Amino acid sequence: MKTLPYDKADYTVPFYDTFPQFLEGMARTYGPRPALSWFTRRKEEKMLTYEELTQKAASLSRALADRGLTPGTHVAIISENSADWIISFLAVVCLGCVAVCVDTEQSDESIRDMVRRCDAQLLFLSPTFLPICLPLLEEPQIRHAVLMGGLASDERVESLDALYQLGGALDPTPLPPVDLDQTAEIVFTSGTTSQSKMVMLSQKAVMQNLCDSSLYVNFHQRVFCSLPFYHAYGLNSAVLNTFLRGAHLYINGDLKTTMRDLHLANPDTMLTVPLMIEAIHNQLWLGVEKAGKADGLHKLLNLAALCKKLHIPFHSKTLDQLRETAVGTLRLAICGGAHLSKEISEEFDLLGIQVLQGYGITECCPLISVNCNYANKMGSVGLPLPSCQVKLVEGEVCVKGPSVMQGYYKNPEQTAEALEDGWFKTGDLGYLDKDGFLYLTGRKKNLIVFKNGKKVSPEKLEELLSAIPMVKEVMVYGTANGAFADDVKLTASVYPDPQRAEGLSSYEILEQIQREVDKINRDLPTYQQIQLVNIREKEFNKTGTKKIKRHDN
Amino acid sequence: MLKLIQTIIYDVTGKQNITYETDFVQDLALNSFDVMNIISAFEEHFDTTIPTREVWQLHQVKDVIDYLARKGFTQP
């Protein structure tokens, strides 16, 4: 068990308990500073100061209250990353309502299913998701929708701009206080069943997590985030954490323009996932190889590593130029969501970019541990946060503390399964070293974790594949493959229906199944697509309850 | 058009030997980020926007060519 003594006086940033306090504090402390920037398609930078950001959020809160929204109401946000996403979120949680962060990378039907299950009464939609969610407006529990950007052409849909105007015209009364234990966020997370689970995080839990991380990690001033806001990592650890420190956040939510915006923003700090770090690494080496300078760079890096080991100061203009070309002024990358190879961290370090690996899980708001600017052990996921108690039960990392979730929404069975005497069982296996640094060694649950930090339950994909008539039994698993930046190749092992397969060659069976798999892949995000199908001749070994034995086939 | 696609894919990923049937994920072992970077290069070249949710439908090189043709973009 690891606990560190700490006191609120140790915090280098203001300590808040609730979102209304946070909003008020941001406006008061950082008012005229730039808060949030983004780039248009034409590469123009748009910016809001802390004053403008907080005023817009407060105006929207008032407008929503005027529309009759009361604390506890569920409000779903279904949109790509945008400034409006953040402002809508802040407005909702400052009113004591629950912001439901919908995973927009799912299929249209999954998105509608998530909105139905979370009991949202109001929807914030970007133009992309309006047509997908319009059928939901026929359903009685959903009062209406707000369109973020664009003109509303349906009477059940109101434009966000109209609400900003309404809020601006109302008396600027202070926001009423909200209860510390009020649920602030519902975030979806992959479960070991086919349906994602809805994690409830309280106002106090999120605030504690933000403030705690400030003890270990110092950001610089220009922070880049391309993580999706519907994940706790993107929303809490990146967006809200940047605001807590009064830094300038550059946002991007479209993988297509991530590299472009990274160069335009020219940040000094980035919160990211291994996929992005590896992509930068690959691009850097691709450029060096095309220029025929790979051998020279290898030698230079070896020399730099040797000097570092011997504590000899080393400075190379070539490395500086290389870093400048690849990532501009970037000096700090905070990496989470999946495992990053130690070699890449070390290479970035030699290039002058510190990589701090952290570890989190949605159910813990999400941060559990992180390396510090001043104490970084590569290969570890850092020190557990001061308020996180960590213990290992048969190797499984269990966490207790104020940032642990309230439970899974409408799912007391799974909540009881995950929480034991307040200890959340993460499903991750690991150990603590003598200095208290946490190392992860594997997973107890079946979840497949990708390098972009996203997870998928094999059961979800197996359910889809089982619907193929030719498939009698199927098991999906991730194959480690160093050739991929994602590092995981999704493979489906299929036992075909013997009756349907009768008289067909293996090739014909595979062809039939592959055709159906291709159809299924078309509705899945790229990272969830089945990359390889193999056919087996025997049924799978099964447990007494007829479940496929995942590790015995 | 195939030649242009070959050039863009090589510039972005360093991969070669691209045909109409080449599948980005299964044959080239590209990840979602690589695929998006390729699409982004197409957007830049043709000065158009391909909605992210539609990118999921583009699995093979020929899907991209068909998609661009539907939008009125062709190149010898």
Reconstruct the topology from this structure.
The complex is a heterodimer of chains A (553) and B (76).
Chain A: H1 19-30, E1 34-39, E2 45-49, H2 50-66, E3 74-78, H3 83-94, E4 98-101, H4 108-117, E5 122-125, H5 130-133, E6 144-147, E7 157-159, H6 160-169, E8 183-189, E9 197-202, H7 203-213, E10 222-225, H8 232-244, E11 248-251, H9 258-265, E12 269-272, H10 274-290, H11 294-309, H12 317-327, E13 332-335, H13 342-351, E14 354-360, E15 367-370, E16 383-384, E17 389-393, E18 396-400, E19 407-408, H14 412-418, E20 419-420, E21 423-432, E22 438-443, E23 448-449, E24 455-456, H15 458-466, E25 471-480, E26 488-496, H16 498-501, H17 506-521, E27 532-535
Parallel strand pairs in A: 1-11, 3-4, 3-5, 4-8, 5-6, 6-7, 10-11, 10-12, 12-13, 13-14, 26-27
Antiparallel strand pairs in A: 1-2, 8-9, 9-19, 14-15, 15-16, 17-18, 18-21, 20-21, 21-22, 23-24, 25-26
Chain B: H1 2-13, H2 32-46, H3 52-55, H4 61-70
Structural features, described:
The complex is a heterodimer of chains A (553) and B (76). Among the domains of chain A are: 18-207, Rossmann fold, CATH 3.40.50.12780; 457-535, ANL, C-terminal domain (GMP Synthetase, Chain A, domain 3, 2-Layer Sandwich), CATH 3.30.300.30. Chain A is built from 17 helices and 27 strands. Chain A is globular. Residues 1-5 of chain A have low confidence and may be disordered. Chain B has a domain at 1-21 and 45-76. The longest helix of chain B has 15 residues, at 32-46. The mean pLDDT of chain B is 84. The A-B interface holds A 41, 80, 128, 254-260, 275-276, 279, 286, 289-290, 451-452, 481, 483-486, 489, 518, 521-527, 529, 531-532 and B 13-14, 25-26, 29, 31-37, 39-40, 43, 49-53, 55-57, 59.
